Amino acid sequence: MAVAELTESEREVWLRTLSNWTLAREGKAIQRNFEFPDFNAAFGFMTRVALLAEKHDHHPEWFNVYNRVEVTLTTHDAGENGGLSHRDAKMAKAMDALAGS
Ligand SMILES: C[C@H](O)[C@H](O)[C@H]1CNC2=NC(N)=NC(=O)C2=N1
Questions:
Q1: Is the complex ipTM higher than 0.95?
Q2: CB hemisphere CA count around 84 (13 angstroms)
Q3: Example GO biological process term (predicted)?
């Protein structure tokens, strides 16, 4: 089902509130690298995010090594070939909150 892609001005506004995230894939995705004290903390974070992602039917692309979790958020159903939607903004904020930053 199609999801509305954020307009450029909407994107500007919420990127300012998501200061730890950067635009990627020519504006079609956002990325953030999280770092935790150890693997347990990183995997605990991923577990909490996974439950939330399933609940909202919005899933991160991510890569984990030990205490690092590299995250990319995008919405496949937004725009022509995927793009950013409010679902990415919501998930990014939730991940920041779960990581305590
Ligand atoms: C069919 C199902 O609702 C879709 O594939 C959902 C699942 N999770 C998703 N996650 C993300 N990040 N983007 C999507 O567009 C998306 N779509």
A1: no
A2: 27
A3: tetrahydrobiopterin biosynthetic process
